[in-house]
Amino acid sequence: MRDLIDIGANLTHDSFDHDRVAVLERAAASGVPRMIVTGTSVTSSVQAAALTEAHPQALFATAGVHPHHAADFDEHTSHALRALLANPAFVAVGECGLDFFRDYSPRPLQHAAFEAQLDLASQVRKPVFLHQRDAHDEFVATLRPVRTRLVGGVAHCFTGGPAELAAYLDLDLYIGITGWVCDERRGSELRAALPSIPLDRLLVETDAPYLLPRDLATKPATRRNEPAYLTHIVERVAAGIGVSVEKIAEATTANAERLFGLAR
Predict the structure, then answer these.
(1) DSSP labels for 82-95?
(2) What does the pLDDT look like over 210-223, one tens digit per residue?
């Protein structure tokens, strides 16, 4: 595994401020030379732009507003995102979607921000980086009518079971798998769904610094996840699907290059 792509890493998070370059070096040494930095607000998307400029061979980015921040979405936000997305380093719109688990933003505002970003993605012709938690039915109902206008999308940090997976595959989405698959407490539904994910729809991500795999043999004292652990996730995905690690690595890299337009 020498060319994995972590499609979702929150590298603008302040927990990386003191050692971000070392984190990138550890990732590359572990076989993860390329990462996509997740934008969750205009501020973090602007910060992601600076990171891609500093590390153009290693980093790409998304630009979007997470449903937690949907209350802040307005016309100025849309203009700012559009300007960022004109940069070729930005390969997707999002993280956008619905989150009814936390409900940090009122649900009508979540819907409005989600729909605005889907419209933006259709205009700029870039895929969507999608978030859904405890909102599956409304998420699918929002996405289905506009799906044909979108160039593609990924269900980021998929944690559902076979039924949710079937709905997302029916929408022709890619499926992003994180260290949630390593969680013996919460990951049983996801592990049940794994064998049904077509290899040409599979992507892998850490969601660093979140979702540190719980079954790491040696865990960092800080409990911070980082892209270097993507190789561990790939091993668990391969075991769950029943194919070789090399096959998962080859498929997920090719899928990320195809969806996000990444050149080798």
Answers:
(1) HHHHTSTTEEEEEE
(2) 999 999 999 999 99
Q: What pTM value is reported for the model?
A: 0.98
Supply the range of the domain harboring residue 224: 5-260
Strands 174-177 and 128-133: unpaired
pLDDT digits (tens, 9 = 90+) for 18-55: 999 999 999 999 999 999 999 999 999 999 999 999 99
| H, E, C per residue of 148-189 | HHCCCEEECCCCCCHHHHHHHHHCCCEEEECHHHHCCCCCHH
Give the chain's domain count: 1
The alpha carbons of the chain give a radius of gyration, in whole angstroms, of 17
Place of tokens 């937690």: 68
- Amino acid present at 72: D
Both structure tokens of 47: 């910060």
